[in-house]
């Protein structure tokens, strides 16, 4: 078994000061109607790389949280009537502020979530791009005009903001999952209440303050942080003033929220879990496939809905691929995300390390071979090493569960039909990847894969200008791209008698 031996270098003595200053810059209260207020309770935010408490933030109860929807509802008419150009310019200012303050926002994200600083910088850039994209979309909301087939009337079709929105985001992309919802909501003329994950509230709290400076009017964006998500969000979802629920998180929670939203027939967008297959055909450029697998597996330390969960390699090249991937994974430095060169940061919490440990144990118990890592690390924080397993049998628990850790699970297939059948044998359908140099196969398999997105000879698909989303139990709706704003618009048809 090869071990990951690289060590990350440590920063200068001023690093703790930089970290404290970044955390101290974040407002920690409940944000409603443009006002920051304290709540009766607070909750700690931990650094997953040390388990230490970074700060305390508001832990709102249902009554305190009600102020956020009150504010969003009160601001709705004014924001909807704000000229699209003005909404666009506010979004453009927010984009520029995020770019200017990228270093501070990235450090806050790394401290609360653990991802390497280089990835956090990438996420800040990605998150900011949603504001730029939707600043451009805000002034392109179109409509329609046509003559009725009978010729006796005219049809006007208008697009109107859906109304106050509830936005719920996960911890794994603390900033981008927020801007991917807030950007189109603002562009469409919707106000919102955003609830970030309790593990990572700081990125969204910092963003709220940036939005304030960018000129977002009071009440247009409101933030509630809480450790009691269910108790706090249920009354807000059932409140008839809420017109839209946009959720990113697990399929399990998504399903329960869909049931709740059904009570008021609320519009919903659901970006849920995945179980991405990563297919490597014998005719693939193996170097490109290895780099693609590395990107699709190790981004966010494997904690991504788009993570390559099942790596399926055609049997004739499987050993060569596994060797090359193992070599590359063994080179990845492990450590705190703030340290230079680190790629393998901590997992989000102790439970995540336990889950990955159990999944690897189960796969090994069923006959998988450990080529790298495979055992938890004895050090403070929630670390699990880069791990490669080969010969993973289909019955292994990790083939049907999101691993959410740095574990590459490799299995083999013989034919294209078999590869497609295995790839589609899951209730999820977020993203699939395939590597081949045969163009016809590339198109054929891309269309046969049951997924909302396909990475054809690419290990990364996310782009603010592209429609992100899944099929089957991976969700409903699309974020980003030209369709992203549709999720926040209603269509109104006016029949004009002549
Ligand atoms: P999660 O447990 O479903 O939580 C997501 C969010 O929902 C958090 O803010 C959470 O708050 C909140 N929440 C939980 N239960 C709730 C309830 N009963 N009512 C209202 N809100 C509730 O997911 P996670 O562990 O944070 O994120 C990982 C999951 O997200 C994975 O399954 C991943 O695949 C998925 N994901 C999907 C996409 C996509 O675009 N498709 C992107 C990223 C992640 P608390 O933090 O307080 O629990």
Give a verbal description of the structure.
With 498 residues, this protein is α/β, with parallel strands linked by helices. The chain folds into two domains: 15-272 and 475-494, Aldehyde Dehydrogenase, Chain A, domain 1 (3-Layer(aba) Sandwich), CATH 3.40.605.10; 276-464, Aldehyde Dehydrogenase, Chain A, domain 2 (3-Layer(aba) Sandwich), CATH 3.40.309. The protein contains 14 helices and 22 strands. It has helices at 15-24, 62-81, 84-100, 102-113, 117-138, 176-188, 202-214, 229-238, 251-262, 286-298, 318-330, 350-365, 416-424, 439-448, and strands at residues 30-32, 35-37, 42-46, 53-58, 144-147, 153-161, 165-168, 192-195, 221-223, 244-248, 267-271, 276-280, 308-314, 369-372, 387-390, 407-413, 428-429, 431-435, 453-456, 471-472, 475-476, 489-497. The protein has a seven-stranded mixed sheet, with helices on both faces. Strands 9-8-7-10-11-21 form a six-stranded mixed sheet, sandwiched between helices. The chain has a three-stranded antiparallel sheet with strand order 5-6-22, with no helix packed on it. Helix 4 runs antiparallel to helix 7. The protein is globular and about 70 Å long. Mean pLDDT is 96; it is low at 1-9. NADP nicotinamide-adenine-dinucleotide phosphate (NAP) binds next to helix 8 and helix 9.
């Amino acid at each position: 078994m090869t071990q990951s031996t690289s060590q990350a270098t440590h920063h200068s003595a001023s690093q703790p000061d930089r970290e404290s200053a970044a955390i101290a810059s974040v407002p920690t209260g409940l944000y409603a109607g443009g006002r920051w207020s304290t709540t009766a309770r607070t909750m700690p935010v931990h650094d997953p790389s040390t388990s230490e408490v970074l700060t305390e933030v508001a832990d709102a109860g249902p009554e305190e949280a009600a102020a956020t929807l009150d504010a969003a509802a009160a601001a709705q008419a004014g924001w909807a009537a704000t000229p699209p150009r003005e909404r666009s310019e506010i979004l453009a200012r927010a984009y520029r502020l995020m770019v200017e303050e990228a270093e501070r926002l990235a450090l806050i994200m790394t401290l609360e979530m653990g991802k390497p600083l280089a990835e956090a910088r990438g996420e800040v850039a990605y998150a900011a791009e949603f504001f730029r994209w939707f600043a451009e979309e805000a002034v392109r909301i179109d409509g329609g005009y046509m003559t009725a087939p009978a010729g006796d009337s005219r049809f006007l079709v208008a697009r109107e903001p859906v109304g106050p929105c509830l936005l719920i985001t996960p911890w794994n992309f603390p900033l981008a999952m927020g801007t991917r919802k807030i950007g189109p909501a603002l562009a469409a003329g919707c106000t919102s209440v955003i609830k970030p994950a309790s593990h990572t509230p700081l990125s969204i709290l910092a963003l709220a303050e940036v939005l304030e400076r960018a000129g977002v009017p009071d009440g247009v964006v409101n933030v509630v942080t809480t450790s009691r998500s269910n108790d706090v969000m249920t009354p807000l979802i059932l409140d008839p003033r809420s017109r839209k629920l946009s959720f990113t998180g697990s399929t399990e929670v998504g399903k329960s929220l869909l049931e709740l939203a059904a009570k008021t027939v609320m519009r919903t967008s659901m970006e849920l879990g995945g179980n991405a297959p990563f297919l490597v055909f014998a005719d693939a450029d193996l170097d490109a496939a290895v780099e693609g697998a590395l990107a699709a597996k190790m981004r966010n330390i494997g904690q991504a809905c788009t993570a390559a969960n099942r790596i399926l390699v055609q049997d004739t090249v499987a050993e060569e691929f596994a060797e090359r991937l193992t070599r590359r994974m063994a080179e990845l430095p492990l450590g705190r995300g703030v340290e230079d060169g680190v790629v393998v940061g901590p997992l989000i919490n102790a439970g995540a390390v336990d889950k990955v440990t159990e999944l690897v144990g189960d796969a090994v118990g069923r006959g998988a071979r450990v080529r790298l890592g495979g055992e938890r690390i004895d050090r403070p924080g929630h670390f699990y090493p880069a791990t490669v397993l080969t010969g993973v049998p289909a019955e292994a628990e990790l083939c049907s569960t999101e691993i959410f850790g740095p574990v590459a699970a490799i299995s083999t297939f013989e034919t294209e039909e078999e590869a497609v059948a295995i790839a589609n044998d899951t209730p999820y359908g977020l993203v699939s990847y395939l590597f081949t140099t045969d163009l016809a196969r590339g198109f054929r398999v891309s269309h046969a894969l049951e997924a909302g997105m396909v990475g054809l000879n690419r290990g990364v698909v996310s782009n603010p200008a592209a429609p992100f989303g899944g099929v089957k139990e991976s969700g409903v709706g699309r974020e980003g791209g030209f369709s992203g704003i549709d999720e926040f618009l209603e269509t109104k048809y006016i029949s004009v008698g002549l």
